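Researcher: Last one for today. Full complex below.
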Amino acid sequence: MTESNRSHLSDDQLLAGLANGSDTVLEELYKRYFPMVMHLILNNSGTEDDAKDIYQETLIVLYEKVTTDSLELHCQLKTYLYSVSRRLWLKQLSMRNRNGNSLLDTEGVAEVDDDLTDHEARDRQFDLMADSLDRLGEPCRTLLEDFYIHHLSMQDITEKFGYTNADNAKTQKYKCLMRLKRLFFSVFKEE
Amino acid sequence: MIDNQKFTDWVDKWLRNELTETERLEFETLRRSDPVLAQRAREQQQLVKAMKTYGQRTDFRARLNRIQASLDMDAVREEVNQLSKVRKLHRNGGTVRQLWQTYRPILAVAATVALITTFGTLMLIRQYQSSHKQQEQYSMMRRDLQAIRRSQNAILQDLNARERALQINPGQVAGSGFLLSPDGYLVTNTHIIQDADSVYIQSTRGDIYKAKVVYADRKYDLAILQVHEDSAFRVKTVLPYGFEAAPSDLGERVFTLGFPREEIVYGEGYLSSQTGYRGDSTAYQVAISVNPGNSGGPLLDEKGNVIGIISGKQTSSEGATFAIKTDYLFRAISAIPTDSLKNNSIRMSRKNGLAKLARKDQIKKIQESVYMVKVFKHEK
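Model: Here's the assembly. Have a good evening.
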């Protein structure tokens, strides 16, 4: 295989590096299978941009699966990525009202239904969170992101946002969180 | 009551694992004791998790985009082309495999349908053949049955089978008959002699005499024959048996002599009913085994009195033979126009010389008066 000539990293090593957040491994992985996916998309009435989007989404599926669950691949990583890309592209094609029922396959296809169902649920949650944060507006959004996502301490936040003391910052954070909670759960609970 | 902000703070710390030991204990107790607070903690956990996932994904996207941006797209394109070429080379002028790849599902379906059709058809054919065979067996059986029924009907009514046989081969119909009087009058069944061109009687010794039909009564199925001016016929002085017109009792031991084949055949049984086929009061039902050819034979009781004339049997059940009662023989005889008898009345005797004889001696005497009736007909 051409791929293995260029790299010495095994599937397991790639997955471990991905979970650890290693940039070099991610780059390695990205480069290794992008041509394959691009080949698939280009051969099935897609553009290079489509290829990039589909490939990145595929990697997100893999990444989130690796970081949330313990990933057990029942096939080669290559086959897995190909299968996910293929399914995502089929979905994309059907959304564009094209006949996406028969792709010209070049690789074996693995069963990825469950993973994609999980992915769709995460997608919904992601979109909802993005929407909630957008509606929250500044400075709440940045404050919450700094605290909850980037794990800044209250002290850092007090300084960054120029609050007079940490208690003020805490009150502000509390109010922001309550608003976000309302925004998020007003939709999330309905689902 | 803890205030909301403080609780939210604790949840944050709990999620970040920043609670001190005492705080953690207090927090746990609170959560366990107050379901509302527990629910709020869960919601906050969920919210924070969603935020983290959001952050993680945004971050990951940024990383992917950085890689994408740094990518040498020309090299990637080159590789894609390479891939296509490799695939094509690999595929060996690969349209066949390409087509195979594309239409594999359709082919699979088609193959499945073909298989199902093939085996289904085979199965259907087999089933059809086997059922057909059964039908054949069945109809063959029925044909056999019909054949039997025909031959049984023969003695019941019209000797249909024999008639049918005659249609193929103009030959003889054979039945039995016996002397009414010593001077050559015999009785037999109408169904034996009907449509006859000529009638012959054959004795147990093999002597054949020509006979003519004096009278044929369809209603009682009785026919009177007379030996036709044959000087060779030895006129007897007296018949060994008498005729008993009075009704016989149920259970009466009876026997018969007849010609189901070329030899005279003896059969015995008992009287099982005062009425015949379908309640026919002119006949007895007798449990005696008879075969085609027994028709017209005498039915005698223990003492050797003629109590009936065998006429037929029921095909649907075993051992149900019917014999016309002697009473109706008398009625038939009395109905004969005197012209037909040429003024020679039939002298029937009630006298019976057999009463004290053993059965085999009775038979010896009786069989001389029992004749095979042979009938010749033309093909219809």
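The longest helix of chain B spans residues 95-156. The interface with chain A takes residues 4-5, 8-9, 12, 16, 43-44, 47-48, 50-57, 60-61, 63-65, 67-68, 70-71, 73, 76-77, 79-80, 82-84, 86-87, 98, 101-102, 105 of chain B (CB under 8 Å).
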